[in-house]
Amino acid sequence: MAQARAAAGDGDVAIQGGATTINQYLAAGLVDELRLHIVPLTLGAGTRLFEGVPPLKLEQVKSRAATSVTHVTYRVLS
Question: CB neighbours (10 Å) of residue 19?
């Protein structure tokens, strides 16, 4: 994260990855905004988003539905 912030300067740092990666950054309190792209697909196994993450207060900022996906943006308040 330190290297990404240094490279971004005054810009934003985007973290992309699966639930394990995102959960680690959420648990560390390093996420200001969370953008989820929700697709109705059952895989049968995997890591749950927010698993092992302390309770968070999220404020929905935006949502947009498309044909096969819903895009939701949350601001992380705590």
Answer: 16
| Residues forming a β-bridge with 36 | 72
| CA 53 to centroid of chain Cα atoms | 12
75: alpha, beta or left? (left if phi > 0; alpha if psi -120 to 50): beta
For the chain, give the number of residues. 78
> Tokens for 60?
């929905």
pLDDT attached to residue 42: 80
20 by DSSP, 3-state: which? helix
- Tell me the mean pLDDT in the region 71-76: 97
CA atoms within 13 A on the CB side of 63: 8
pLDDT tens, residue by residue, 24-65: 999 999 999 999 999 988 878 888 999 999 999 999 999 999
